[in-house]
Amino acid sequence: MKHRKRLLVVLTALLIASGLGTAWRTEASEDAGAGPQSKWDALASWTEGFYQASVEENRQLAYGYVLKMKAAAADRELRSYGTPEGWAVLDERLNAAQALIERGAFAYTWREEAARLKLAVDALSRERKALWRQYERLLREDMSRLHKAWLQGGEKGNEAAAAALRQLEGHVLRLEAAAAFGKEPAHVSVLKERIRYTEKLLEAAPGGRTEANRTLTEGSLVLLGDAVDRLFASGAQPAAVKPAGGPSWQWTAMLAVIVLAGLFYTGWHKFRIDRDEITVPKRPLR
User: Fold this and answer.
1) What's the confidence (pLDDT) of residue 31?
2) pLDDT given at position 128
3) In principle, which of 86, 104, 158, 199 could form an S-S bond with 180, CB 3.0–4.6 Å?
4) Which candidate, 268, 270, 248, 275, places its Cα nearest to that of 15?
């Protein structure tokens, strides 16, 4: 019985020490800002700063934010979240933004890169529905304009259809990295391929439409709409930027309290039994 009690006491002490150690490590990690969540917060903050700098056409400030974003995005721990395809596209967009600023391009060009990066970084968070999924309405409006322009016929109809197709392509490129983080890179690739194919069909008949061209283009528009449907029909969720860990220190402390209460009750119960069983010996008669 004594050995069992000692073992329970040792286990309780280990539980308490483990819980406190976890709490101290968590607090230290939060204070140091070294966790994946804090790294994502920094990246998101700098991305928002880059976007605001692009709106204000502040080239120097925007360049500083891009360098900070590149350094943050190179962190190995942060890159363990999301998808390799998403990080690959995000790296491309960061490099493109840096190149545009360095060669003195107009602010609206790197503002587009800032919008793409903002959607991509947002897609890493599970706290809310990803912003890039709100582009479904825009893409469907682009498809509607494309169909209406194609039905007009003639050279003007082709030109209007080509303009609507370019607008659709711009929206798709804007959400490309975000969708890749949302585990939809294959759907985006198919959509981009069908946009390029439709574009070639429109270019093939600038002055008039043959029966073959009309059939191929109408079929391509159907496939294009199907690709948009598939992109937004999937319910895949991004990998949340949230560090994984063991049980919380509160849970460990509660378990330790329960064990201590059990020990106290066992000891008190044994004390009562021993007390009740004590008998005072009678003194012998003289």
Assistant:
1) 41
2) 61
3) 86
4) 248
